[in-house]
Amino acid sequence: MKILFVMFLITVFLILLPQKIGDSNIKTNLEEKIEKRIFEIIEDLDNYKIIKQEEQPVDTPKPTVTPTTEWWKYPKEILTTKRSGDDLLVLVNKTYKLPSTYAPSDLVKASNSGIRRGENYYLRNILINDLKNLINDSKQSGADLSIVSGYRSYKTQVDTYNYWLSKNNNDVEYVDTFSARPGHSQHQLGTAIDFSSNEIGDVLGDTFANTKASEWLKTNAYKYGFIISFPKGFESITGYKHESWHYRYIGVENALSLTNKGLILETYLVSLNP
Ligand SMILES: [Zn+2]
Fold first, then answer.
1. Lower Cβ count inside 10 Å, N or C end of the chain?
2. Distance 139 CA to ligand 1 centre (A)
3. Residue 145 alpha carbon to ligand 1 centre in Å
């Protein structure tokens, strides 16, 4: 009996032994996995922190626009534009001027947009499709649009500015309220358009503000990527008197973003050109 009992104990031991070894193996594997996982999480968190720290700008001042009472004046220091002229978001104003050598590479005739008048002005090809849609939709709403100025080369700007000086007894301060000095005009970009309408006999100027075409543009132009450059009441920021006819193309996405943020073109471009 004793021998039988000892054999029984040995048999039970032999049966249970592999299971115990197996259990401890599983346990070890699990512990390793858990430990490994915890280690990985810690590692991930560390990496996350490092990435976050790198993303945070250190002591970068927010871009601001300082309004000035003598808003028509140029600053003492004139700078060259930070972005290429081909960049739809390049800031061109009284502080930043385009290089005299800059000309857009994709100029085409405005006639490609189907405009009724002003078809011989040049504009960048990049805006033609949106302009075509703008013209068609304005027509459908009963508003007539024409173009009275588009791309102006650096050389043309020299002539234009000098023309206005000669017309106004070389009154530089007065001319600076409405005419850009060479290199400072958005028209050199090929994305600025001066609009008019048959309502005022296709002339350029203040009378455009009272037209149905102007009203339509004010409400709808941004949907096609166009933004008024020199709005009423913002002279101290833009440096130019109100021009109801002058629009600049910055692309539909940007025009929507600007409108949603309630910004004007100048402050929007300044915020993107730190
Ligand atoms: Zn203009």
1. N
2. 22
3. 15
Q: Kindly report the average pLDDT of the chain as a whole number.
A: 84
Q: Is residue 17 part of a domain?
A: yes
CA of 26 to the centre of ligand 1 (A): 78
pLDDT in tens, 112-151: 999 999 999 999 999 999 999 999 999 999 999 999 999 9
Around ion ligand 1, which residues have CB less than 5 A away?
194, 246
68, pLDDT greater than 90: no
For residue 14, the surrounding DSSP H or E stretch is: helix 2-55
Does any domain span residue 208? yes
The per-residue pLDDT for range 72-98, each reduced to its tens digit, is 889 999 999 999 999 999 999 999 999
Using the mean position of ligand 1's atoms as its centre, give its distance from the Cα of residue 158 in Å: 15
Q: Are residues 246 and 167 in the same domain?
A: yes
C-alpha dihedral (129, 119, 264, 82), degrees to nearest 10: 80
At 71 the pLDDT is 86
Instruction: Provide the Cα torsion 267, 268, 273, 274; round to 10°.
Output: 60
Is 261 domain-assigned?
Answer: yes
How far apart CA 162 and CA 151 sit, in angstroms, is 18
CA of 249 to the centre of ligand 1 (A): 12
pTM of the model: 0.75
Structural domain includes residue 85: yes
Instruction: Return d(Cα 187, Cα 204) in angstroms, integer.
Output: 15
Q: Which domain holds residue 267?
A: 79-272
pLDDT tens profile 2-14: 666 666 666 555 5
Read off the tokens for 232. 């009423």
What spacing in Å lies between the alpha carbon of 77 and ligand 1's midpoint?
A: 24
Residues 51 and 85 grouped into a single domain: no
Distance of CA 108 from the midpoint of ligand 1 (Å)? 18
What percent of the chain clears pLDDT 90, i.e. is strictly above it? Answer: 72
Query: What CATH number is associated with residue 207?
Result: 3.30.1380.10
